[in-house]
Specification:
Layout: E1 2-6, H1 11-19, E2 23-27, H2 32-39, E3 44-47, H3 55-59, E4 66-69, H4 79-85, E5 88-90, H5 97-112, H6 115-123, E6 140-144, H7 148-158, E7 164-168, H8 174-178, E8 183-184, H9 188-194, E9 197-200, H10 214-219, E10 224-228, H11 237-246, E11 249-254, H12 265-272, E12 276-278, H13 287-305, H14 322-326, H15 328-344, E13 351-358, H16 366-377, H17 390-396, E14 400-406, E15 414-422, E16 425-434, E17 437-443, E18 446-450, E19 454-462, H18 467-477, E20 482-489, E21 495-502, H19 508-517, E22 522-528
Parallel strand pairs: 1-2, 1-3, 3-4, 4-5, 6-7, 6-9, 7-8, 9-10, 10-11, 11-12, 13-14
Antiparallel strand pairs: 13-15, 15-16, 16-17, 17-18, 19-21, 19-22, 20-21
Length: 529
């Protein structure tokens, strides 16, 4: 298989390909002309982050079948263009997790023991033994996010014999935390109030961006320390700087930045702050990690050529997905139900049951189950989750999956039902397809029909006169337009679920205001863009 390697990857990866019969040509910083020439008969392309794989570049590679990214992120690859061309894109999501975890612990130790201060003074031939640090022993340590890296960080922190090891992650079962000797706390605020050290290990998503701002930092104990070796933008850097300058936060260790390389005055001041330990996004930069990701990608290229399972594909090539095309409306429905579920009930997911009923039960339900898992897990996972790797990601997060078929669908020709089990119990959502568009037809035990799109406000309360008027008045005062309203209930003036499709977004405090006005026992805003 003719393979072109651009950018520098560990030689072990190239050696693995050659040992398995690949014809490998490596180009280091090639000119556009040299790269275009090499791609004319290229079947596989391996890159890191320096080369942008665009639609234009794909046009120059008519025989290209697979692209390997020797690392986690695929920001430099136009994945949609690859999918349209039938080109598989794979990455190496596990190869650098140990390095990232160890870098985090190293940054934390450097922070609490003030190692950079002592190093700088002694380098200047100043013998100063008045530098005092702190111990991690008998402290309360908090880990936000228990994914691949967070899990390893938590396991290593356990070795420092802390007083308590706390974990906040609303998308994992409690058993996952117990496995590393940690206690799962119910909400982020609780962890902040109790922890002496907080370290972040979550992906950067709309939900996590800015999750540690001025309000959250104020909840920390005076003298707490903050570590962010996950993604820039999770901690609001201007607010962290203010908390450091006020003395409320004793110190911070930062490897990642909202702007890389940092240029703004705020970031310059944060980097120069005497109680901040910094590195330039080096979490994955170890010799071992680079070997791991190179070999992991090489193994996947060999598996692809041999027709074996490629577990870390980040896309589904449309050209090869005949079944996906046939079931496309129901695959879309499956992903929507998953995305709706994870926002409706963002608790510790332990189990998912997918039931396929009616005409679609005659097809293989596996594809639809994968669609549900992709919708459930992609918004809360660092790497992309799709039809290829959905089951793998579910296993990694300790989520059990069951798939059922049934003939009965009630009034619908076909129906897809998703039942999630969390610490709060079981929650059910069901949908079908009308005129090619997803339609939700049941929430919990109540029948309710609406098209899931845009901004969706879901409320549960005791139905009585005046409730709709209160909701309309508040939303009108906020200049938020109600596109449509749907109600599900079993009895008059009984418990009702009300679904409002809105033209505009709502802030959390605005959702709380609406919920308080109707004495709702449940209120959630779902965003489906």
């Amino acid at each position: 298989m003719r393979t072109v390697v651009v950018d520098a990857i560990a030689p072990e990866g190239i050696a693995y390909l050659r040992e398995h019969g690949f014809d490998v040509r490596q180009l280091m910083k090639p000119s556009p002309e040299a790269l275009a020439e090499a791609l004319t008969d290229c079947e596989a392309l391996v890159t890191r982050s320096s080369t942008a794989v665009t639609a234009g570049l794909l046009d120059r590679a008519p025989r290209l079948r697979i692209i390997g990214r020797a690392g986690v992120g695929v920001d430099n690859i136009d994945v949609d263009a690859c999918s349209r061309r039938g080109v598989v894109v794979v990455n190496a999501p596990h190869g650098n997790v140990v390095s990232a975890a160890e870098h985090t612990v190293g940054m934390l130790l450097a922070l609490v023991r003030r190692i950079p201060d002592a190093h700088a003074r002694l380098k200047a031939l100043e013998w100063d033994r008045s530098i005092y640090g702190a111990e991690l022993h008998r402290k309360t340590l908090g880990v936000v996010g228990l994914g691949k890296v967070g899990l390893r960080v938590a396991a290593r922190l356990r070795g420092f014999e802390p007083a308590r090891l706390l974990v906040y992650d609303p998308y994992i079962p409690e058993a996952r935390a117990r496995d590393v000797g940690a206690r799962l706390v119910p909400d982020f605020d609780a962890l902040l109030r109790e922890a002496d050290v907080v370290t972040f290990h979550v992906p950067l998503t709309p939900e996590t961006e800015g999750m540690a701002g001025a309000r959250e930092l104020a909840l920390l104990r005076p003298g707490a320390r903050v570590v962010n070796c996950a993604r820039g933008g999770i901690v609001v850097e201007a607010d962290l700087l203010a908390a450091l300058e006020s003395g409320h936060v004793a110190g911070a260790a930062i490897d990642v930045w909202s702007e890389e390389p940092p240029r703004s005055e705020t970031l310059r001041r944060l980097i120069a702050h005497p109680r901040v330990v910094v590195t330039p996004h080096l979490g994955a930069n170890s010799a071992e990690a680079q070997v791991n990701v190179a070999v992991d990608v090489a193994r996947q290229l060999v598996a692809f050529r041999d027709g074996a399972l490629v577990e870390h594909a980040v896309n589904i090539p449309v050209a090869d997905a005949t079944t996906v095309e046939e079931l496309r409306p129901f695959v879309a429905l499956a992903e929507v139900l998953g995305r709706f579920c994870v926002q409706l009930d963002p608790e510790h997911l332990a189990r998912v049951e997918v039931t396929v009923a009616g005409a679609i039960a005659e097809t293989d339900p596996e594809l639809l189950a994968r669609g549900v898992l992709a919708g459930l897990l992609d918004p809360v996972t660092a790497g992309p989750v799709n039809l290829v790797n959905a089951h793998l990601v579910a296993r990694e997060r300790g989520v059990e999956v069951e798939i059922h078929r049934t003939e009965s669908t009630g009034a619908y020709k076909s129906m897809l039902t998703v039942c999630t089990q969390t610490a709060e119990g079981k929650k059910l959502i069901a949908g079908t397809v009308f005129d090619g568009q997803p339609r939700i037809v049941q929430l919990r035990d109540l029948h309710i029909e609406f098209t899931p799109e845009g901004y969706i406000l879901v409320l549960s309360y005791e139905d009585r006169p005046g409730m709709v008027g209160r909701i309309g008045s508040i939303l009108g005062g906020l200049n938020v337009n109600i596109a449509s309203m749907h109600v599900g209930r079993k009895t008059k003036r009984g418990r009702a679920i009300v679904v409002l499709l809105l033209d505009e977004d709502l802030a959390p405090e605005q959702v709380t205001e609406v919920a308080r006005a109707v004495e709702a026992d449940f209120a959630r805003l779902i965003r489906l863009r």
